[in-house]
């Protein structure tokens, strides 16, 4: 049981390049999330998904896209990289059965991807 | 909107010292509260949580009590070890269907032998 895995661990991009950050979980969790962590700041939610085929924007979605074609995978796409997207990106997953209320489910995080845009 | 404020670091302690990391929150509803820990080079791990007022979360010698009257969730440990060196994040979930977390900025703890 690997939990949440992310690739790559590190990446340097030039301005305007595109890339996909991969995230896979093997816990059969229905909810998945992408966060970014900037120096001296807390994690900010980029996008999330409550199940295959369902995605929604978080707090800072501009410049990113996601898809969720399977339960296991939740890739994050950067189309035109900008220096402001230099950050550490974390993927997380949780199992939630409620439709409303609660918010107590533990989120499990991957090890992160450190991205630098020059 | 909802927010979390935690004390800035770094916090540097000697082994066996007492630890307190302050965390306060602002929320319109009745959030659940969490402490996550990030060891060097790793992702975040849940350390403890509390889901309602006066609940105490505890794990690995760490404790935090959900104080609604002071909107606080301070993390404490009676005797820290070098292995506790990490970044600690306080977070809340507003209880919505999305289970989203709102994080504080993190506090770096460095424990010296």
Describe this protein's structure.
- The complex is a heterodimer of chains A (118) and B (113).
- By secondary structure, chain A is mainly β.
- Chain A is built from no helices and eleven strands.
- In chain A, strands 2, 4, 5, 6, 9, 10 and 11 form a seven-stranded mixed β-sheet that branches.
- With 113 residues, chain B is mostly beta strands.
- Chain B has no helices and twelve strands.
- Chain B has strands spanning 3-6, 11-14, 19-21, 23-26, 32-38, 44-50, 56-59, 62-65, 75-77, 86-93, 101-103, 107-112.
- In chain B, the strands form three sheets. In chain B, strands 2, 5, 6, 10, 11 and 12 form a six-stranded mixed β-sheet that branches. Chain B has a four-stranded antiparallel β-sheet with strand order 3-9-8-7, with no helix packed on it.
- In chain B, a hairpin with a 2-residue loop joins strand 7 (56-59) and strand 8.
- The A-B interface holds A 4, 31, 33, 35, 40-45, 48, 50, 56, 58, 90, 92, 94, 96, 98-112 and B 4, 31-32, 36, 41-46, 49, 51, 89, 91, 93-106.
Summed up:
Chain A has strands at residues 4-7, 10-13, 19-25, 31-37, 43-51, 54-57, 64-66, 76-78, 87-94, 108-109, 113-117.
Q: Please tally the β strands of chain B and state the result.
A: 12
User: Greatest chain-chain interface?
Assistant: A-B, 33 and 28 residues
Main sheet specs of chain A:
7 strands, mixed
Secondary structure: number of strands of chain A: 11
The average pLDDT of chain B is: 92
Instruction: List the secondary-structure elements of chain B in sequence, H or E.
Output: EEEEEEEEEEEE
Q: Low-confidence spans of chain B: pLDDT under 50, at least 5 residues?
A: none
Q: Globular, elongated, flat, extended or rod-shaped: what is the shape of chain A? A: globular
- Helical residue percent of chain A? under 10%
Q: SS-based structural class of chain B?
A: mainly beta
The first-to-last residue Cα distance of chain B is: 41 Å
- What share of the residues of chain A does DSSP label as strand, in percent? over 45%
**Helical element count of chain B?**
0
Distance, first to last CA of chain A: 36 Å
Residues in helices of chain B, as a percent range:
under 10%
Q: What can be said about the biggest beta sheet of chain B?
A: 6 strands, mixed
Overall mean pLDDT of chain A stands at 90
> Unreliable stretches of chain A, pLDDT < 50, 5 or more residues?
none
Rg for CA atoms of chain A: 14 Å
Order of helices and strands of chain A: EEEEEEEEEEE
């Amino acid at each position: 049981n690997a939990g949440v895995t992310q690739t790559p661990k590190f990446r340097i991009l030039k301005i305007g390049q595109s890339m996909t950050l991969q995230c896979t979980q093997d816990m059969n969790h229905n909810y998945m999330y992408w966060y970014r962590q900037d120096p001296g700041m807390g994690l900010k939610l980029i996008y999330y998904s409550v199940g295959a085929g369902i995605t929604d924007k978080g707090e800072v979605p501009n410049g990113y896209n996601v898809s969720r074609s399977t339960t296991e995978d939740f890739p994050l796409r950067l189309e035109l990289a900008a220096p402001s997207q230099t950050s550490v990106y974390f993927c997380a997953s949780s199992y939630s059965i409620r439709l409303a209320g609660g918010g107590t489910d533990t989120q499990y995080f991957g090890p992160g991807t450190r991205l630098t845009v020059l | 909107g909802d927010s979390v404020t935690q004390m800035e670091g770094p916090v540097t302690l000697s082994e066996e010292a007492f630890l307190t990391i302050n965390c306060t929150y602002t929320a319109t509803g009745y959030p659940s509260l969490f402490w996550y820990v990030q060891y060097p080079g790793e992702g975040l791990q849940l350390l403890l949580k509390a889901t309602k007022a006066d609940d105490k979360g505890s794990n690995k010698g760490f404790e935090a009590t959900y104080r609604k009257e002071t909107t606080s969730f301070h993390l404490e440990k009676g005797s820290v070890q070098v292995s506790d060196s990490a970044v600690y994040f306080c977070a809340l979930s507003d209880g919505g269907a999305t289970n989203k977390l709102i994080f504080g900025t993190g506090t770096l703890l460095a424990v010296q032998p």
